[in-house]
Every structure is written in structure tokens, then in C-alpha cells.
Amino acid sequence: MSCSSNSVDDRNCRFLLDISVNETINLNFPEFSQLKSINVPVHIPLIGGKDGIIVNNTGSRYVAFDATDPNHIPTDCSFLSINGIIAKCNCEDGNEYSLLDGIPVGNTGTTCALRGYIAQRNGDDLSIFN
């Protein structure tokens, strides 16, 4: 069982909507099987969610994050792309975040960490929720 807790102060991080997340994926399905490997993140679209979630197996736990840059009002460019274990914003500033803990990387002046969700494995199923 794993719960992501972001250590960056997020009192001013109010751009993301509070949506309910309750997804279960089967790690044996081809589109999710790479999550059995360490640090091979996967983007999962959500029904009703803007950009979905990004899930990663860190080796010691699973982590899940909202796939929208929390330092922007959600727009077409605030979707996060996966580049190894880094999530990168597609807006002009190119904010980057670690997919190990959701914390901003580099000295970009970002104040908000990625919004984390609980990721809990039960056999071949991985439940992601808040």
C-alpha cells in the first residue's frame, strides 16, 4: 500500500479541481504491464478527469499523480508529458516534476508539487483513489 504525500507547501496550489478518483487497473493488461517494471511510468486517462493520472512503480511502492501541472490554470498546454521519471509541462515554462515523489525538479520557481493519489496493490490489481 502506498500513499503519496507531497512535501512542498501547497496552500496556494488551487488551480486543480477536486475530482473524485477511484480507478482499478489490472497489471496483466498489456497497456499497464510495464508498471511491473521499476520506473517505467504510465499515463492513465480518467473518465471525467481533464488529463488523467500518471502511475509509477518506484521499486518500493506505487505512486500516482494528477497529470496536470498544479502551477497553472488548466489549459491545453498544462498536460504533463512523461520523459523517463520526469513529468514535464507542455506550457512555455516547461515545469518538471519527479515521478518518484511529485516534487518539482530544477530551479524553476514552482511552488506546488504534483497532486498525489493513493495507489494500493492487491495481487494483480492496482487501485488508485483519493
Features:
single chain; mainly beta; Rieske Iron-sulfur Protein; 7-stranded antiparallel beta sheet; 0% helix
Topology:
Layout: E1 2-3, E2 22-26, E3 42-44, E4 53-57, E5 62-66, E6 80-83, E7 86-89, E8 96-98, E9 116-122, E10 125-129
Antiparallel strand pairs: 1-9, 2-10, 3-4, 4-5, 5-9, 6-7, 7-8, 9-10
Structural features, described:
The chain is mostly beta strands and 130 residues long. It has one domain: Rieske [2Fe-2S] iron-sulphur domain (Rieske Iron-sulfur Protein). Helix content is 0%, strand content 33%. It contains no helices and ten strands. The strands form two sheets. Strands 1, 2, 3, 4, 5, 9 and 10 form a seven-stranded antiparallel β-sheet that branches. Strands 6-7-8 form a three-stranded antiparallel β-sheet, with no helix packed on it. Strand 3 and strand 4 form a beta hairpin. It is globular. The N terminus is likely disordered.
Short summary:
This protein is an all-beta fold.
Which class of secondary structure composition applies to the elements?
Answer: mainly beta
**What proportion of the residues form beta strands (DSSP E)?**
25-35%
Biggest beta sheet summary: 7 strands, antiparallel
Whole-number average pLDDT?
Answer: 86
Helical stretch tally: 0
Total number of distinct structural domains: 1
